[in-house]
Specification:
GO terms for molecular function: hydrolase activity, acting on carbon-nitrogen (but not peptide) bonds. This is Amidohydrolase 3 domain-containing protein. InterPro entries: Amidohydro_3, Metal-dep_hydrolase_composite, Metal_Hydrolase, YtcJ-like. The chain is an alpha/beta fold. The chain has three domains: 112 residues, Urease, subunit C, domain 1, CATH 2.30.40; 126 residues, no CATH class; 297 residues, Alpha-Beta Barrel (TIM Barrel), CATH 3.20.20. The protein is built from 17 helices and 26 strands. Strands 8, 14, 15, 16, 17, 20, 21, 22 and 23 form a nine-stranded mixed beta sheet that branches. It has a six-stranded mixed beta sheet with strand order 3-2-7-24-25-26, covered by helices on one side. A five-stranded mixed beta sheet has the order 9-10-11-13-12. Strand 4 and strand 5 form a beta hairpin. Helix 9 packs across helix 10 and helix 10 runs parallel beside helix 11. 53% of the residues are buried.
Length: 573
């Protein structure tokens, strides 16, 4: 008889099995769970070489599986100068000043936005000076280095800020013409102040996350991200996810080639410590260039058809598409007109005409490629699911786990269609936290109350996976937000009690269900015999403490296949 490598005992093990069993102990051998049960029974399996870890009553959950994480984007934010917590222009300048001290003269300094959502919506009023910093402020600390502070990607308008050196290099003057959706702020003399407003999504003011952007406006000369930078960004994001208890991700939004290379390199080096399933990005222009689109479909089908290609650490599968624009900026495609970010009524943005989009999806289906579509607004969900129904009549998709993403405003009919076709839906209640003011202004309280309707999705029998969308990326926060449904600016509570779900349901949405989206539910997502020992040990029992205290919980240890990828002392050296 062989003995387990590790035994965790005297804990509360939330297994997320079919019965939501809560056990006391778990035994791990060769990266897999070999027994789950009482402390007495599991300790009896231990041998002389077994590591025994006394949990001292701590809670253990399956490692979180983020159904839409943007791990690369999270990492990018760690690499760039950030202004977290600033409350004055002087504090903004302190960040830039420190960066100048580490750079060569003339080297570009590209910074994160001054503020991210939901804090952004209180700016610039929360700054002591009551205004945005401008070119002259930045010039004081960076006269020689061009500085560009990026606009927030999911805010309309996003505020970009440049100093005089950057403006001079770009050749921007009082007479510079701007593309649609971009505004140059000017002073009383008509001169640019260095403050720029970008209402677009995706933003066309440049950022270093330039791998999926179109033509850059005003500052095209800003150095794009190179492969080394992307590699470092993905690795930084991965380590942050280790600390957060995330052991696997399903990135359905579509991964461009630089990110693919970064993940693959980590995997080849044996350094990938977050299981990653991602679909390949299908660029929107390819819908109107059938030859290019077909070439990508043919290439992707060689290695990512069916359930995908790879192993338990890295898997490529299918193609990812975007149909409409972002709800966060009031631009999703809705069924009825609403007032968008720029103050006039419309129904939102559709990126690709129906006929071209349907043709592109048909081509993917014929190649046996799984399809994932970002469709946020109700009008977009209606159209996309109608296309799925049309394709299904010719090429059955049941069992292929086609997916829709974001899908904030589904109807009862949409849910029935998803169940009938076996469509997986991934969404996040983080939208309500980050963009509550946008929701209430654009869609009103009644419609917003039923946005991201987790209770309705569950009751309809649809495989729904919760995610973070990378903002904030902490799954413990998102677990709480699944229950609380609060706005981060107004504190408004959306849709309770009728959209209330239980903690057991919230945990399942972020573990087993998200694993199902990646065809990994037989390997991860619950703590059961025969599955990989991916788990998180917590400082607080999130299943029993007061709901408002859940965001205070921390991850003490994260195990991937039974090995610590994050530990603050429980496992020692």
């Amino acid at each position: 008889m062989t003995h387990p490598d590790t035994v965790l005992y005297r804990g509360r093990i939330y297994t997320v099995d079919a019965r939501d069993t809560v056990a006391e102990a778990v035994a791990i051998q060769n990266g897999q769970i070999v027994a789950v049960g009482s402390s007495q029974d599991i300790l009896a399996l231990a041998g002389a070489g077994t590591r025994r870890v006394d949990l001292e009553g701590r809670a253990v959950i399956p490692g979180f599986v983020d159904g839409h994480p943007h791990m690369d984007g999270v990492g990018i934010r760690f690499l760039k100068p950030s202004f977290d917590g600033v409350r004055s222009i002087e504090e903004v300048l302190d960040v830039v000043r420190r960066e100048v001290g580490q750079r060569k003269p003339g080297e570009w300094i590209i910074c994160n936005p001054v503020a991210s959502e939901p804090e952004f919506f209180a700016f610039p009023g929360v700054l002591r000076e009551g205004r945005w910093p401008n070119r002259y402020d930045l010039d004081r600390v960076s006269p020689d280095n061009p500085v560009f502070i990026e606009p927030s990607g999911l805010v309309a308008p996003g505020i970009g800020i440049a100093n005089s050196a950057a403006i001079k290099i770009a050749g921007i003057t009082a007479s510079t013409e701007t593309p649609s959706g971009v505004e140059i702020d000017k002073d009383s003399a008509g001169e640019p102040t260095g403050i720029f407003r970008d209402f677009n999504f995706p933003k066309i003011m440049p950022d270093t996350y330039g791998t999926i952007r179109g033509k850059r406006a005003l500052f095209p000369m800003i150095p794009p991200m190179d492969q080394d930078y992307m590699n470092r960004a993905v690795e930084a994001g991965m380590h942050a996810f280790n600390r957060a208890g995330v052991t696997a991700i399903y990135e359905g939004h579509g991964i461009p080639q630089p990110q693919q290379r970064a993940y693959t390199e980590l995997w080849q080096r044996g350094k990938l410590s977050v299981r990653t399933y991602f679909v390949v990005a299908f660029p929107q222009p390819y819908f109107l260039n059938v030859e290019q689109g077909q070439a990508l479909i043919d290439e992707t089908a060689l290695y990512a058809a069916g359930q995908g290609f790879g192993d338990d650490l890295l898997r490529f599968g299918g193609l990812g598409y975007s149909f409409d624009s972002a709800t966060a900026i009031g631009a999703c495609l809705m069924r009825e007109p609403y007032v968008g970010a720029r103050g006039y009524a419309w129904t939102g943005v559709q990126h690709t005409p129906d006929e071209a989009f349907l043709d592109g999806l048909f081509r993917a289906a014929r190649a046996n490629l799984r399809v994932q579509v970002q469709c946020a607004g109700g009008g977009a969900i209606d159209k996309v699911l109608s296309m799925f129904e049309t394709i299904n009549r010719e090429i059955p998709i049941l069992g292929k786990r086609w997916a829709i993403e974001h899908c904030q405003f589904p109807s009862t009919e949409n849910m029935a269609s998803c169940r009938r076709l076996g469509v997986v839906a991934t969404t996040t209640t983080n939208f309500l936290w980050n963009y509550d003011t946008v929701y209430l202004r654009c869609f009103g309280e009644e419609m917003s109350a039923n946005s991201v309707p987790l209770r309705d999705w569950i009751d309809a029998g649809v495989m729904i996976a919760q995610s973070t969308d990378g903002r904030p990326f902490d799954p413990l926060f998102t677990f709480w937000q699944s229950l609380a449904r609060k706005g981060g600016v107004t504190g408004h509570v959306f849709g309770l009690p009728h959209q209330k779900i239980t903690r057991a349901e919230a945990l399942r949405l972020m573990t087993w269900n998200a694993a199902y989206a990646a065809f990994w539910e037989h390997r991860i997502g619950s703590l059961e015999v025969g599955k990989l020992a991916d788990l998180a040990i917590l400082s607080e029992d999130i299943m029993t403490i007061d709901e408002d205290r859940i965001p205070e919980a921390k991850v003490i240890t994260t195990l991937l296949a039974g090995k610590p990828v994050h530990d603050i002392g429980l496992f020692g050296s």
